[in-house]
Amino acid sequence: MERRLFGTDGVRGIANVEPMTSETALRLGRALAHVNKRSPHRHKILIGKDTRLSGYMLETAMASGICSMGVDVLLVGPLPTPGIAFLTRSLRADAGVVISASHNPFQDNGIKFFSRGGFKLPDELEAEIEALVLGDSIDALRPTATEIGKAFRIDDAVGRYNVFAKNTFPRHLTLDGLTIGVDCGNGAAYKVAPEVLEELGARVIPLGVAPDGENINQNCGALHPGALQRTVKAAGAHVGVALDGDADRAILVDEQGSIVDGDEILAMLAADLHARGDLKRETLVATVMSNLGLHVAMRERGIRLATTPVGDRYVVDEMTRGGFNLGGEQSGHVVFLDHNTTGDGLITALAVLALVVETGHPLSELRKVMRRFPQVLLNVPVDTKPDLATVPSVVEAVKQAEGTLGERGRVLVRYSGTETLLRVMIEGEREGQIRDLAEGIAAAARRALGGGSAAHAGER
């Protein structure tokens, strides 16, 4: 069935424009409550959010819809997405709701759901919820009197997640003597991330910790780490940590001010876990967007690299199916199933910081476990998203690029699951060549699919 509401990471759009309206949020709340009332006990659903202005509107609507179905609501306020996944499990809620558009600008918002086990819902359950929202089969279900749900605020939610995150850091280590810059992107981790690092002993230089409802991800955080890079160099900090709006991913900065992305983080952590015999089934899980250098580094160490489609939910699905404990994305989503059920930027940072402390090596040295292949990634705005196999000009441009590169590179062209963009990624040995090939595919896509100029998402 074609999806009308759910994308690769929940429901997302411009706040107060369908589907991201109070009316749809209320219906989503009713549908989520309905599918979770599978037994006679008193049910409860937890709701958390990031710092967007529209979060108040959507939180209230979701809570109203859930209560109207006779299910109680636990409100935790601004908290990282992984914190909400943790609390859903810890408080034994029947489900969790995150109101966030992650790395998107403040005018956007999103709604995604977690199961009682803290995992994102499977496609089949999302399809069931969508059918209930768009249909009328539960409209007449109206509990009354004492059967109507209640809403409760969990005042110590930040403290609970703080303790949980710190417990993932090795107990025999501290961060004493380290100076760490942390950019919270004016998002959901603006309180908890600096607290955790300071309580573990670090001297913390905080950035992006003054959210006003409109400045989330605005020239700060994981998508815009420039200010953090400058701060790390100017202050002589040992490491910089950049989180996105809902703090489910982290990008790091080494002591020289250079970016360390998710692929390099995965390479460091996988190599360390493997050396200690703690990498389950000697396998790392990553997506098709991972750099070729990660594949080479893992192969050299006898580590199998399992690949999935783009999206942390697909990484987690593969990890649970295969019994693996480490996986993630180049964007900085890193999943430690030994600790949490979803990407966790703060736990990712703590894992790398533990490696820095344990080995005594700076991050600029640790990252050398992987040699990055040059990569160009272009985002091409599109008006429509037809099957790319039905767009001859794009197919031909991709074929030409693949023929030029042969076995010395790779081409990946796909639509974004959350934005009206076509992503063109090419890797190879010569940066100038792959940039020209990527621009050729982007030009063909613009002519065939509309939209404006390609936006350069990254070149390495």
How many separate helices?
A: 14
Mean pLDDT: 94
Q: What is the tally of beta strands?
A: 20
Measured by DSSP, the beta-strand proportion falls in 15-25%
Q: Strand order of the main beta sheet, please?
A: 1-2-6-5-3-4-7
What gap, in angstroms, lies between the N and C termini? 38 Å
Helix content: 25-40%
Biggest pleated sheet: 7 strands, mixed
Overall 3D shape: globular
Radius of gyration: 22 Å
Structural class: alpha/beta
Description:
With 460 residues, this protein is α/β, with parallel strands linked by helices. Helices cover 36% and strands 21% of the residues. It is built from 14 helices and 20 strands. It has helices spanning 22-36, 55-67, 81-90, 123-134, 157-166, 192-199, 226-235, 262-275, 292-300, 312-322, 345-359, 363-366, 392-405, 431-449, and strands at residues 6-7, 10-14, 44-49, 72-78, 95-99, 108-115, 151-153, 179-183, 203-207, 239-243, 250-253, 259-260, 283-287, 304-308, 326-328, 334-336, 375-381, 410-415, 421-427, 455-459. The protein has a seven-stranded mixed β-sheet, with helices on both faces. Strands 9-8-10-11-12 form a five-stranded mixed β-sheet, with helices on both faces. Strands 14-13-15-16 form a four-stranded mixed β-sheet, sandwiched between helices. The longest helix is centred in the C-terminal third of the chain and has 19 residues, at 431-449. The radius of gyration is 22 Å and the shape is globular.
Concise summary:
This protein is of the alpha/beta class and 460 residues long. It is 36% helix and 21% strand.
Protein traits:
20 strands; alpha/beta; about 35% helix; about 450 residues; globular
